[in-house]
Design goal:
alpha+beta; 208 residues; Cell Cycle, Spindle Assembly Checkpoint Protein, Chain A; five-stranded antiparallel beta sheet
Length: 208
């Protein structure tokens, strides 16, 4: 069987964005933001996942993630968060992907290496609800991108996104639940959940 290789950061970013899109659908299901009936069962990386049936919701998620791909490829996007808000539009939880893509060398990277690593994150998301308190009723959600920098060219293409306020949590304590992390020659990534809390808590170290 021919080995598919990822040649550069663009290939890695494309596969990551495909994975991120699946994760958003799965998180909306796992955190029970919508009724179970609006999801259908699919498989990704041979993992059973939930996928929204509603075409407008699917298109919104796909468009948002697609618009992020160039920023991720160029290393401008430091963190991507799915932010859940209560009925009063107060943030109650953020699921955060913190990532750093690295330049591929030599003949590139076998795609299955990255797929295997991302599969581990997806499996953790599928069971993450057991480690988290339930969300309040009538939650809404939004996607937030935290940027290191933004070139003029990329800024002109960013109408879909509104930059996050870097000071949006400056006066708030929070707790962190680490879901999974990895370090490799091609991608460093942390997946964790941030919730408002009384005492700040350091991220716990887990096995990749």
């Amino acid at each position: 069987m021919e080995v598919v290789r990822l040649a550069d950061q663009g290939d890695v970013a494309a596969l990551f964005c495909e994975f991120l899109e699946v994760c958003i659908h799965q998180l909306l299901s796992v955190r029970e933001v919508y009724p179970p009936a609006i999801f259908e069962r699919r498989r990704y990386f041979n993992v059973p996942v939930q996928w929204a049936r509603h075409p407008d919701l699917r298109e919104y998620i796909h468009s948002a993630v697609s618009n992020l791909q160039t920023w991720i490829q160029q290393g401008a996007a430091e963190k991507i968060a799915i932010k859940f808000l209560d009925a009063n539009q107060i943030p109650v939880e953020k699921v955060i992907f913190k990532l750093c893509l690295k330049k591929l060398t030599g003949t590139g990277l076998p795609a299955q290496h990255l797929e295997f690593a991302l599969r581990g994150f997806l499996l953790k998301i599928c069971v993450s609800n057991s480690a988290l308190p339930p969300l309040p009723p009538d939650c809404s959600w939004e996607l937030v991108a935290y940027m290191k920098s933004l070139s003029a060219d990329n800024a002109s293409k960013s109408q879909f996104w509104i930059p996050a306020d870097p000071n949006d949590r400056s006066n708030q304590s929070f707790t962190i639940t680490t879901i999974k992390s990895m370090r490799s020659s091609y991608l460093d990534m942390q997946l964790y959940v941030e919730r408002p809390g009384v005492e700040p808590q350091k991220e716990s170290k887990t096995e990749p």
